[in-house]
Amino acid sequence: MPLECPSCQQANRPVARFCKACGASIPAAPPPDPLLQLNGLVGMTEMKREIDRLVRVARAAAGRGGGRASALGNLHTIITGNTGTGKTHVAGIIFRLFHHHGLTASPNYVRVDVVSVSEFEKELEGHYKKAAGGVLFIDNAHRLARPGPSGGTPPIDRLLSRMDASGHDPVVVLAGLRRDLRDRVEDSPELRSRFRYVFHLPDFEAGELLEITEAHVRGNGLLLHPDAEERVRLLLRHRVRTRDASFANARVATDLGEALCLRYFLRVDGGDPDDGVIQADDVESDAPPERTLDQILAELDGFVGMDTVKREVRALAQQIEIERRRAEQGIGRAGNVTRHFVITGNPGTGKTTVTRKLAEIFSAIGLLDRGHVVEVDPGKLEGQYIGEAAQRVNQACDEAFGGVLFVDEAYGLAGSGVAGSTGAGSYGQKAVDTLLKRMEDDRGRFVVVVAGYRDRMDEFFRMNPGLPSRFDSYLHIDDYTPTELRDIFEQMAAAQQFRLSTEARERLERVTKDMYDRRGRDFANGRTVRQLFDQARSALAGRLARLPAGAVDDAAFSLIEAEDIVHDLPEAPSLEQALGELRKMVGMETIKDWIGDLARLLQMQAERETRTGRKTVLKLHVVLTGNPGTGKTSVARILGMVLRTLGVLPRGQVVDVDRSGLVAPFLGQTALKTNEAIDRALGGVLLVDEAYSLASDAFGREAIDTLLKRMEDDRGKFVVVAAGYPEEMRQFLETNPGLSSRFSDHFHIDDYRPAELLEVFEVMSTEQGYTLDPAAREPLLRALDALYAARDRNFGNARTVRGLLEKSIVRQSRRLAAAPDRDEADFALLRADDIPGLEAAQPVDLATSLAELDALIGMDSIKRQVRALADFLVVQKARKQAGEKSSSLTLHFLFRGNPGTGKTTVARVLAQVFKALGVLPKGHLVEVDRAGLVGSYLGQTSPKTNDAVDRAMGGVLFVDEAYALASDDFGREAINTLLKRMEDDRGKFVVIAAGYHAEMDRFLATNTGLASRFTQYVDFEDYTPAEMAEIFRHLLRTEGFVLELGADAAVEAMMEAVWAARNAAFANGRTVRNLFDRARQAQATRLAQAGVGAPADGSDLNLILVSDLPPASG
């Protein structure tokens, strides 16, 4: 502030001691109030607010009776900031302010500059004594925060110990570089707890630097002319925009102020009038002219494509500009004009370029000082050790001040597979949390743009619930169209003074269309075109180099020919080729007819459009139902090919998705994911497999609604094929009224029949260079017939055949590896013994099966019952083959009898009889009891029972002790599931329920459906003593033993005694087996005690004596 002369009232410079007009002495100005001095500083709003609050508290404390402001306790302070942000100046003001308001007891102020850490530590005690009652100011304290020699304890920890020893006297004020000292404070709770105040002094913005420059000029009694002020403003904005690590903040402004004053005084000394006004010519500036908002937007408009983004960015820029101008005029206020952005798009779509334009726009409007862009990715933010993530994010945010922080592939912070990313499980989460805090703490000082694939950004937003609310602007950049890709190539060529021949232009048109049509997720858009252009330049150079000297004129060096555009253009299939592929498919006659009719219809519509100019957009969406492996994907592929050849769809690709490809785990994200799938399918076919699963919850229904909207909005741009099981798809179409009306055709693809499965096997074999041995066709057909007969809703059709072929190839390789003599033809031949499962598919002879039944001991009534059943089935089979009417039996059985009576053995023989008669294709036996059907938790029983039934398909499900299922709700759930499958899969498997006679009768009474399902009753009587003796002798023969002469009577007597003493533990055949095992054990003990070796004929080792037989009571 100028000093006024008390004699003549002339204004003089603040430092003047004598009046420049009259020469009178000018008294020194009184020392200013430190608080006024602090508030007079430029910027530092947060620190001023906190210090002002402290002063008001101190005044209140001092005003109380006996109160002392110095009793406020901890006043230790940390000040961080880059070079020239005023740390030392602020520390001095804080010292004076503390003393002025009684916060410190003495005027002692000791300033220590940490030049040498070791010297500082030696003199620390002396500094403490000198500063007693006042302030100890330690400048460059960031040097104390670095680790000691050999990674030891940082010196700052020893300072903290000294502070603990002396309490709050003196007040310690630390100052240091922002990055080093702030990171140490944030990572060290111990350090943060010692200091009451932590002030971060930000770099000065251009407007603040202008204030400092003007203050310096006024301090010398001068003023800036408006034109000079504008030049200074532009120069300082340029300095801020181009600043680097050496940027000195306020010193830049004071140096500029001194330079302006110097040029003014030199000009006055040269004869110009001393009017105290610095003119524009006094400002030496190397700042380039600033571009206007309109110029930047015009550059944006010059970009190829991005029409939606251009409109949104222009509207946003205009909105913010209007808000700013209204605030300047005092009508309204500038809102939160610091927008944070989400920009999505595939690689090479220009996300980084758009971000740079946003930075330039915000700078031109005046919202950002620098308008630069700091580009990072997850690998640059996460770090490798604890605390480094926060440091890296803070460093990136500091560098982005006045500009934009661009985080590419931001979802990589969640550990999503980005190279170099360690993910949220380690440091990614810390990086996100730190970024979120800085966006709040430094609101308005920088803009954050996160970018990546649209369908993966939800991974980033799930990392912190506060993230979605921080980003208020979303921009999506579509892939470039073929025309736009061509335009980009031509722009690149023109920029480097290349021209394209007519043929090259035509080829470029085809190439960019093919690139677009075949693009995948990794398609790089503009980068791909850049590669194509670079390849064209290289090809041109190589072509010219091969020409003879003198054959090339100057124009040829700049002319790109068609052959220089290197790209493999696939030959587009004709309609006849597409229909030919359709005809080669096995079965599917209905589908073939439909696609053929559709092709003819579309041809007529195309001719109608040509003749009349009227185009009809047909509904081509279709529902396909069928089991797995029936060729739904192949049908969708052929449909896409046909529609492409007819020009209905430009690409004809098939995008195959299921529920997981459309539904996101969070509400609101499903629409984005579904739209992304549809975007990939544009120009082709979207195949939604198991579409019915979308109707199961709110997330799936959101996908349905999104799909229906796009089917209407993008009518004719893509075709939807919804696929799944018939009944489920019928229910699916009923869940939303709009579904049925959108799908014009419904087709069911039947399971492949055995002969068709054989044809599929041979086609697949031929495709892989194999031939099926003619001798293997018949047994393979029988095996496929068994698979077909045993199929359920999960039958894999062609997938099952493919799996069978792959196993056959493995077995053929093993066979050939063991064959010493093999020729080239052997490697192409698949024999019957190469194909797994053909052994089981061998025909079973009925007589052999019945003979096996006859060989069983006892069971005469059961044998007669089974033979009568077999005779009936033989006759019915013959009547059916003769074309006569035949009747069928319900072939589910109830086996009643005690344990060990042969129920399982008879069930196994019965399964073979049914196979021999063609009733069951596989004839295997699946044995289960209650534990094999009932789950441990609610909801597990039905899947477990269904699994058992699925394994029994084509054979027999033998449920032992079935009555145990009726004991509780879990068992009854198993019964109900079993009954439903017996009805739904009638004739595909046989159930035999077995158990005690009385318990099985009670079992039937527990459910009315059981008696009607089990119509065949077989009762197993206990074995007689004679039958038990025969079983014992059968075991002896089977195991190679003989009885001593005369021992038969002892065996029969033993069985008579056992039978007479039988109780609930009696187990018939199992009891005989136990007796036999005990006799073998007794024989072994006898021989071992006698020291018998192995005789030449082994007679003693095979002989069972009467003494070896166990007592009947045992």
Explain what this protein looks like in three dimensions.
There is one protein chain. This protein is α/β, with parallel strands linked by helices. The protein has nine domains: 1-30, no CATH class; 34-202, P-loop containing nucleotide triphosphate hydrolases (Rossmann fold); 207-282, Helicase, Ruva Protein, domain 3 (Orthogonal Bundle); 293-416 and 425-476, P-loop containing nucleotide triphosphate hydrolases (Rossmann fold); 482-550, no CATH class; 575-749, 3-Layer(aba) Sandwich (Rossmann fold), CATH 3.40.50.300; 755-834, Helicase, Ruva Protein, domain 3, CATH 1.10.8.60; 846-1021, P-loop containing nucleotide triphosphate hydrolases (Rossmann fold), CATH 3.40.50; and more. 50% of the residues lie in helices and 10% in strands. Strand 25 (925-928), helix 35 and strand 26 form a beta-alpha-beta unit. The longest helix has 24 residues, at 589-612. Residues 73-205, 337-481, 618-753, 889-1024 form the AAA+ ATPase domain. Belongs to the CbxX/CfxQ family.
**Oligomeric grouping of the chains:** single chain
Just give the CATH class of the largest domain: Alpha Beta
The tally of beta strands, per DSSP, is: 30
By DSSP (H or I, 4+ residues per run), the number of helices equals 42
Structural class: alpha/beta
Measured between the Cα atoms of the first and last residue, the distance is 122 Å
Strand order of the largest sheet: 4-5-6-3-7
Gyration radius from CA atoms, angstroms: 46 Å
CATH topology category name of the largest domain: Rossmann fold
Give the proportion of residues in helices.
40-55%
CATH architecture of the largest domain: 3-Layer(aba) Sandwich
Instruction: Tell me the major beta sheet.
Output: 5 strands, parallel
* CATH H level, superfamily name of the largest domain: P-loop containing nucleotide triphosphate hydrolases
Return the domain count: 9
Query: What amount of the residues lies in strands?
Result: 5-15%
What coarse outline follows from CA principal-axis ratios? elongated
Low-confidence stretches: 416-425
Mean of the pLDDT scores? 85
